[in-house]
Amino acid sequence: MLSQNGIPTAEEVTSVLPPAERLTKGPVAIAECFQNIPCDPCYHSCKQGAIQEFNDINERPQINFDKCNGCGSCMSRCPGLAIFVVDATYSDNEALVKIPYEFLPLPEVGEIVTAINRGGQAVAEAKVIKVQNTKVQDRTVIVWLAVPKEQMMEVRHFRVKEVR
Question: Which residues form the 4Fe-4S ferredoxin-type domain (predicted)?
Answer without folding.
Answer: 59-88
